[in-house]
Write a structure and sequence with these properties.
Blueprint (H helix, E strand, L loop, with lengths): L5 H9 L1 E9 L5 E9 L9 H10 L3 H16 L9 E5 L14 H8 L7 E6 L7 H13 L3 E7 L5 H8 L3 E4 L1 H4 L6 H16 L3 E5 L4 H10 L3 E3 L18 H7 L5 H9 L6 E2 L4 H10 L4 E5 L5 E6 H8 L4 H6 L7 H4 L6 E3 L4 H9 L6 E6 L2 E7 H18 L9 H13 L4 E9 L1 H8 L1 H18 L5 E6 L2 E7 L5 H18 L6 H6 L1 E5 L5 E5 L2 E9 L8 H17 L4 E6 L1
Parallel strand pairs: 2-3, 3-4, 4-5, 5-6, 6-7, 7-8, 9-10, 12-13, 20-21
Antiparallel strand pairs: 1-2, 1-8, 10-11, 13-14, 15-17, 15-20, 16-17, 18-19
Helix pairs in contact: 3-4, 8-16, 19-20, 20-21
Protein name: Diguanylate cyclase (GGDEF) domain-containing protein
GO molecular function, one term: cyclic-guanylate-specific phosphodiesterase activity
Pfam families: EAL, GGDEF
Length: about 575
């Protein structure tokens, strides 16, 4: 191995290491820290990239990198409970090009500080072009063979992201800041991140949302299924290790899980399969499968975090081969035997949206189930049969409550949506729609034509309000819509609702005879039996903007607001009444 010249030794003494926490989006608990180099500007380099480029040109990149790893690990051990969190270290893809590269040196460093390989994860950036794919594969193969976790950093910004995902099968991916920035206002970014998350979960990959800078970004990333978060909103990189906390209160407040029927439904079907610890001996594992009826058993590390599963069928096929059992229980190999047979598996938090769990399973037909976690720790196993039972139960409940005419969610689901939204203490817009002069139209044109009008409004609502809206049919000519919002898009939401009101007023004209359409009214009896003129059909909308931490966050209060503002909406020239709950 090359020895560092004195100038590089002096550089190392002047450099420092900062740590930035990576936390669970559901609990706010620290999961790990990323090590970041600081101080290159003080030793004459403009950027960190310039610093490593210089080392590469002098053929000392690997030697320097090892010296920095030791510096990182030494400082890492000064963190509180460092042995319970993961250390993320960035590696330069050019290390393998160095003439003095050799294996086993990181292992020696870890042993020096009495640390396990499990706590270390190497980050490989997608942002830096990998000119030689064979070298990249060597890097991956080397570190995976040495039993280290791999994270793909800056995922989504390079041209080879999915190729990297396929070749590396990383333990983590870090979604680049580009996709996270203002994601709450960008529908395209939401779709892309959701797709990345769903794919990653199916491959058993843990997703880190990188570069989180606002509360709204945390909330959206949590809703889309990201497991972990990192960024200035969590905490800026810290040179002082005492400032790295076990738990981050502001994340807990933002992400505090509300009571919801989804979570309770999952708990009812959850199987508390006792997991295997990665350090268990294979002999004990085989005995466990002999006595157990479970086709798959989750594997955890010593902190209780899931690593994947052991599949009985795959182990059986190996054991039944010549000398298979002897090879399997032979503990002399460098890699722990249990770890060698772990299969990456879908992991979802107990507080996740139920739709994410269903999608993760339904898109992966071979799955025996899903590992469920609570605050990133193993909580239980949701088997394939139980997931199917949950899907059937949900479909049955939905069918019972569904309006038979419009096939939209009915009162039970509407009330559940309102309750869940209020309990989460989020900003939202909720709207109540009521068709004006519908009874007179129904009496004149008949029930069948009246049903067509109801279906027309249902179609307009579904086609013109985005998927982010919850839409329901209260009954008769009454409808509901609700959506979570931020400060910036209250007006935008009201504009969408206004468009629905105006479009119905225009489109419903086709439901009248030419004579009535030209007259602009119909003659019919009112509720007291008096004959009078009725204006053509229109729709009134009561729009309630609910702010965060607003008072009177209850279902009854929302219904009272809708009822009290109904007349004002009908009297308004635009048929809309907008009010706020402060």
């Amino acid at each position: 191995m090359e020895e560092l010249e004195q100038n590089w030794i002096n550089y190392l003494k002047k450099l420092d290491i900062a740590f930035q926490p990576i936390v669970c989006v559901h609990s706010g608990n620290i999961y790990g820290v990323e090590a970041l180099l600081r101080g290159v500007d003080k030793i004459g380099f403009n950027t960190i990239a310039d610093f490593f480029d210089s080392a590469y040109q002098e053929n000392i990149l690997y030697t320097l990198d090892l010296a920095l790893r030791e510096k990182v690990i030494r400082k890492f051990t000064s963190l509180k409970d460092y042995d319970k969190i993961k250390l993320f270290i960035n590696i330069d893809n050019r290390l393998f090009e160095m003439p003095d590269f050799s294996g086993g040196n990181t292992q020696k460093l870890l042993e020096k500080f009495n640390l396990d390989k499990e706590m270390l994860c190497f980050e490989i950036s997608e942002q830096h072009a990998i000119s030689n794919i064979s070298i990249f594969e060597k890097v991956l193969t080397h570190y995976k063979n040495e039993s280290y976790s791999i994270a793909v950093d800056d995922f989504g910004v390079g041209v080879s992201g999915f190729q990297m995902l396929y070749r590396s099968t990383p333990k983590f991916i870090k979604i680049d800041r580009f996709f996270i920035d203002s994601i709450h206002k960008d529908f395209k970014k939401k779709i892309l991140v959701q797709s990345i998350v769903q794919l990653s979960i199916q491959l058993g990959i843990t997703v880190i949302a990188e570069g989180i800078e606002t509360e709204k970004e945390v909330l959206v990333c949590k809703e889309l299924g990201c497991h972990l978060a990192q960024g200035y909103f969590v905490q800026r990189p810290q040179l002082d290790t005492n400032k790295i906390l076990k738990s981050y209160e502001h994340i807990i407040k933002v992400s505090h899980p509300r009571f919801n029927t989804n979570r309770e439904q999952i708990k009812n079907y959850l199987e508390k399969i006792e997991p295997i610890v990665v350090t268990d001996r294979m002999n004990a594992v085989l005995e466990r499968f002999k006595k157990s009826r479970d086709p798959a058993i989750p594997v955890i590390n010593k902190e209780g975090k899931p690593l994947g599963i052991l599949d009985e069928e795959k182990l059986k096929s190996f054991v039944s081969s010549p000398y298979g059992r002897s090879l399997l229980i032979n503990e002399t190999e460098k890699m722990p035997k249990v770890k060698k047979y772990i299969i990456p598996y879908a992991v979802v938090d107990i507080n996740s949206n139920m739709n994410q769990i269903v999608e993760s399973f339904s898109n992966y037909k071979e799955a025996k189930g899903i590992i469920i976690t609570k605050a990133m720790k193993y909580y239980g196993f949701l088997s394939a049969s139980n997931i199917i039972s949950i899907i059937n139960e949900r479909n049955l409940v939905s069918a019972r409550d569904q309006n038979p005419l419009t096939r939209m969610p009915g009162n039970h689901q509407i009330d559940r949506y309102i309750n869940d939204t209020l309990a989460e203490n989020r900003q939202a817009v909720m709207s109540y729609f009521d068709l004006n002069n519908f009874k007179a139209y129904n009496d004149t044109y008949g029930f069948r034509q009246g049903d067509r009008v109801i279906q027309l409004f249902s179609d307009i609502l579904n086609k013109n309000l985005p998927k982010s809206f919850f839409k329901g049919h209260i009954g008769g000519d009454d409808f509901f819509a609700g959506v979570l919002v931020n400060d910036e898009n209250f007006e935008e939401i009201v504009e969408k609702i206004t468009f629905v009101v105006n479009k119905f007023k225009q489109d419903v004209l086709q439901m009248y005879d030419k004579k009535d359409r030209e007259a602009g009214y119909i003659i019919a009896k009112d509720r007291e039996g008096n004959v009078k003129k009725f204006d053509l059909l229109s729709v009134s909308a009561v729009v309630i903007c609910i702010y965060k931490n607003s008072q009177n966050r209850s279902l009854d209060f929302i219904h009272k607001c809708f009822a009290s503002q109904k007349k004002a909406a009908k009297a308004d020239i635009n048929n809309i009444n907008v009010s706020s709950i402060l």
